[in-house]
Amino acid sequence: MLDSQNTSSRNTPLATHIGADDLPFVEIGGGNKLKVIHVRAAEGLWIVENIFQAGYEVATHRHTGPVFGYTVAGAWKYKEYDYVNRAGSYLHEPAGSVHTLHCVEDDTRVWFQMYGANLNLTVDGRIESVTDGAAALDAYLALCQAQGFGRPNVLVG
Amino acid sequence: MLDSQNTSSRNTPLATHIGADDLPFVEIGGGNKLKVIHVRAAEGLWIVENIFQAGYEVATHRHTGPVFGYTVAGAWKYKEYDYVNRAGSYLHEPAGSVHTLHCVEDDTRVWFQMYGANLNLTVDGRIESVTDGAAALDAYLALCQAQGFGRPNVLVG
Amino acid sequence: MLDSQNTSSRNTPLATHIGADDLPFVEIGGGNKLKVIHVRAAEGLWIVENIFQAGYEVATHRHTGPVFGYTVAGAWKYKEYDYVNRAGSYLHEPAGSVHTLHCVEDDTRVWFQMYGANLNLTVDGRIESVTDGAAALDAYLALCQAQGFGRPNVLVG
Amino acid sequence: MLDSQNTSSRNTPLATHIGADDLPFVEIGGGNKLKVIHVRAAEGLWIVENIFQAGYEVATHRHTGPVFGYTVAGAWKYKEYDYVNRAGSYLHEPAGSVHTLHCVEDDTRVWFQMYGANLNLTVDGRIESVTDGAAALDAYLALCQAQGFGRPNVLVG
């Protein structure tokens, strides 16, 4: 009694499309850029797109949930690994993994679908700060405002 | 007593990198191609990359879990919506959403990170078949074998 | 710049408590009862509590996402397995698993945390109907209305 | 070609049952007890059952993923909220939520299905330590060994 074979319900939920130009990339220093696309805070989900320039580094961090990385252009690596992430590559970072991002080529482009938080570590492995979807969204909205983009329509929920 | 501030454990799990050429694209007819990259069957997770040619269609289907689509090249749409998915766009398909894929431009490239199953529907909305990560993996491995690619190292688990 | 060590933010999200009597159990026939507690439809999440009577059966179904079962009282089993689920036991049903619920003792009580849909199968393994969180919620709300419970405050989202 | 309507595949994955006595409760001090039931580390999932005695406290912590709490017996609360969790209640703690557990009645019993990590906080809101599924499993196995239970068969993966 709890089921329905007919799937063409009037209540069918809708997909949400966010075009390449629907949300701005904000400058985060040195020509590196960030776009926060989708945050479902209760679930711990956050999806961002980055453009990195050669030499850019992200502090060593440990993830508390799984991360799925899709590289579209350029080249970047984690210092802890030999391989280089290039266009068309996929990266799976399990919960608990630790790494230090280093960008190898200009205009590297990557989507990260992340769950949980980044625990940003000092060189001796202590937690210096925490980044999660809610914090990333706040920072993005503030940078959008400061850089003249107004309030973009990030998918929330 | 259950915690540890020191995060540089010898047990740190490793990220898994799958380069663009590490897994083959198999032909699925008409120049359309499929690569199955990652399947975590117990969780219902499956990640694929597709190359579609203009005119390619995927039967109307309903998703039982959320889907996250990242378009890298070309143009495609769902017949149920006006927008066209192009390079750099993001698509969120909530669990329960229903749509019919139609490819608009040749060499369209999309990553889909999917949870759950596709319920493939007849024109009157009844379920004709089901596709999930385990089935996609089986099909991919069979096609790899048939097309001379041997047994590729799909990330499983 | 995207992080914050200070975690006592004014934006801290709140936990939601649903007391044992905050939502009614509805009768679903033969003294068997259902409570729908939490539905996050976009993610495919649905959490229910059931009270089953001896002899109650649920049609054979396949799950498209993982299910986590917590048995509080009584005894029930899946016909496909020998073990009996009793108070204090845990059951993990991976995506793709198939089974036929049979209740062994009166007043069996189980929480199910489910992702995705139940594909209800005929004896020859074809899909007869589909139950998901949205459908369960609709049915529950209708039964609440019909049984004089008004509109209960199920956690949605 | 990627689908199958016939669901009675020989490859159907199996459910895993863990009976109430299949895993030991270990003593964690003062008559409080812990059972680690299921850890899927890559996904950040950990499921535990606790028995708490009146007066037991868990340090203030922030969750980086969602938590689902099922209370079977007794009474406990978070100091930050007025409500008391009693038998038959459900608690949803979204990612980012912060709280300090205090047990009100002896032999309180709760299942927690958790994703991500607990960031354990000092009184001024700084992170003192981190607990996640992998750490909880290590601690549980060590306590089992020390308390004469050998190596229990926790569901891993």
Q: Helices and strands in order, then pairings?
A:
The structure is a homotetramer of 157-residue chains.
Chain A: E1 16-18, E2 26-27, E3 33-40, E4 45-52, E5 57-63, E6 67-73, E7 75-78, E8 85-86, E9 90-93, E10 98-103, E11 108-115, E12 118-121, E13 127-131, H1 133-146, E14 155-156
Parallel strand pairs in A: 3-14
Antiparallel strand pairs in A: 2-3, 3-4, 4-11, 5-10, 5-12, 6-9, 6-11, 7-8, 7-10, 12-13
Short description:
With 157 residues, chain A is mainly beta. Chain A has one helix and 14 strands; from the N terminus they run βββββββββββββαβ.
Structure description:
Chains A, B, C, D: It holds the Pfam family Cupin_7. Chains A, B, C, D: It comes from Pseudofrankia inefficax (strain DSM 45817 / CECT 9037 / DDB 130130 / EuI1c) (Frankia inefficax). Chains A, B, C, D: Residues 18-114 form the ChrR-like cupin domain. Chains A, B, C, D: This is Cupin 2 conserved barrel domain protein. Four copies of one chain form a homotetramer. With 157 residues, the first copy, chain A, is mainly beta. Chain A has a single domain (25-156), classed as Jelly Rolls. Helices cover 9% and strands 45% of the residues of chain A. The first copy, chain A, contains one helix and 14 strands. Chain A has one helix at residues 133-146; strands at residues 16-18, 26-27, 33-40, 45-52, 57-63, 67-73, 75-78, 85-86, 90-93, 98-103, 108-115, 118-121, 127-131, 155-156. In chain A, strands 2, 3, 4, 6, 9, 11 and 14 form a seven-stranded mixed sheet that branches. In chain A, strand 2 and strand 3 (33-40) form a beta hairpin. The radius of gyration of chain A is 17 Å and the shape is globular. The interface between A and B is large, with 48 and 48 residues. Strand 9 (90-93) of chain A pairs antiparallel with strand 1 of chain B, so a sheet runs across the interface.
